[in-house]
Amino acid sequence: MRRATSMLKLAPPWLVRFSSVSASSLVDEFTKFCYQRDLPRAMKAMEAMQRNRLWADAITYSELIKCCLVRGGIEQGRLVHEHVFSNGYEPKTFLINTLLNMYVKFGLLDEAQKLFDEMPDRNVVSWTTMISAYSNSSLNHMALEFLILMLREGVRPNMFTYSSVLRDCNGLLNLRQLHASLMKVGLESDVFVRSALIDTYSKFGEQQDALNVFNEMVTGDLVVWNSIIGGLAQNSDGDEALHLYKRMKRAGFAADQSTLTSVLRACTGLALLELGRQVHVHVLKFDQDLILNNALLDMYCKCGSLEDANLVFTRTMADKDVISWSTMIAGLAQNGFSTDALKLFESMKLRGPKPNYITVLGVLFACSHAGLVNDGWYYFQSMKELFGIDPGREHYGCIIDLLGRAGKLDEAVKLIHEMKHEPDAVTWRILLGACRVHKNVDLAIYAAKEILKLDPTDAGTYILLSNIYANTQKWEDVAEVRRSMRARGVKKEPGCSWIEVSKQVHAFILGDNSHPRIEDIKREISRVIQRLVSVGYVPDTNFVLQDLEGEQMEDSLQYHSEKLAIVFGLMSLPKEKTIRIRKNLRICGDCHLFAKLVAQLENRVIVIRDPIRYHHFQEGVCSCGDYW
DNA sequence: TTAGGGTTAG
């Protein structure tokens, strides 16, 4: 009796309680605690059940495992695992799947794999859980391998499996095969599968396929719309992305953070500042969303409105990550505000996140832009030591630009040959830009030939090369270049400039007279040129190394697309409004001079974004420092 | 019990 009493004293209170209840009420108590999400009591009850060789039903355990995931930890999860396999109890596949999912959610792939290997019967859920786990861990080859093994075992994939595995495709062929096989079993109408298909086709740059999948949709949801809008925006088809955004709204869907991020990206690509500002109003609903705010910040930077970007960065954004800082630093540098970019980088080092690969690119770009050769070299040579980042091809590109800008062309070539990475077309184009500024024809020919070896479709480089040969009267070489262009089907892209006026985008294309006010614009250009000539403007017809990408000598200099757009801006926008233009080709020397003088004479601010650089013209100077 | 969409450079 004394012994029994002492045992009771030693035993924890819950054991005393359960020792007095029947087996079925023990399980009932456990079930109750599981559904009440009372994890500590459920765990104690489970221990008592184990002592008494009692088990509950699989759904109750699955509730307990959910509770471990939300409120507990892996230790409790492992105890559940141990219990459901104890004393010869054989858990159903459903329950093992739940445990499998638990290990995956805790990030314990090895343990999940071990359990999966030991499973007597694996069903589609078991396989899909593993496929999804590998897919989320970026082990795409494993996910695909599992799909093959699953098919070999005769387990048929369902919509869950396909929507997981689609993003693991290692090639377009693979994607088309999966697309065909899911169509055979009629799974293409599932919204998850459809959005995964759209997303994956977009990632491979197959926009038409993505659009086909989208257009076959009868009923879809917001994510499907977001997939197609996002895919188009990421593949530089901003116009189509914005068109579908309007359709989405007409179809009755309200934009969420993901939609607005993609819409902002489309505005960024098209330099549509006014539309971007309208989108900003909707962004205010999601003011804590970091990704969306970063996209907003980038939109203002790339649309050339650094005032707005600064306001977003300093006032709106409570949380900032390395992307926010990098965006702002690169934005300042690209728009010609190098000193501000470097100051911001200093404050990032003091109170911001750790800089990454892209942050350093922005910093080097700022140094190059401001001609800070020593600072650029310092950051380049110490980036590994200071920030733990190995210089990549792009960092070398900035330094080649830095040397080129400073006129150190020989050193730039030496660096290209010394760098660890194989130079690509971009590397050689940077050198070519320096040759243009410093009028080094021989080196320009060398760089142009290197570009064409790597990118035989680059129309601008063919034309540049042909112009150089024409200028030095090497007619056979001119003919050879033209032959190569024809043979490869390379065509000169006409110069095009876009300007946003009263919520409408006006496009001006060289040689195209379809704009309703084209005659007025041409008359106004003549008047403006007359005024400019009176203050000393002489049209610059030296195109040989001026015009990199194509608005040609034989075309009328006077009607280059950016001149049409600038003058249309003067005619249509109030005096205090900045004239903002986006171009598809690099700005030519004459248009650059024209813009500087117009800005001065008409007391206007003009911002032109070409494919590579930004030009802020104000009071007769350009933020690019005449280097582009 | 298993699934899909958004941000910095080039």
Automatic annotation (TrEMBL):
PROSITE patterns attached to this UniProt entry: PPR
One GO MF term: RNA binding
Alphabetically ordered keywords of this record: Repeat, Transit peptide
The keyword Methyltransferase belongs to this UniProt entry's keyword annotation: no
SUPFAM superfamilies linked: TPR-like
Residues of the DYW domain: 536-628
PPR repeats: 57-91, 92-122, 123-157, 221-255, 321-355, 392-422
GO biological process: RNA modification
Family note: Belongs to the PPR family. PCMP-H subfamily.
PANTHER family per the UniProt record, alphabetical: PENTATRICOPEPTIDE REPEAT-CONTAINING PROTEIN, REPEAT-CONTAINING PROTEIN, PUTATIVE-RELATED
Name of the protein described by the UniProt record: Pentatricopeptide repeat-containing protein At2g03880, mitochondrial
Gene: LOC111484572
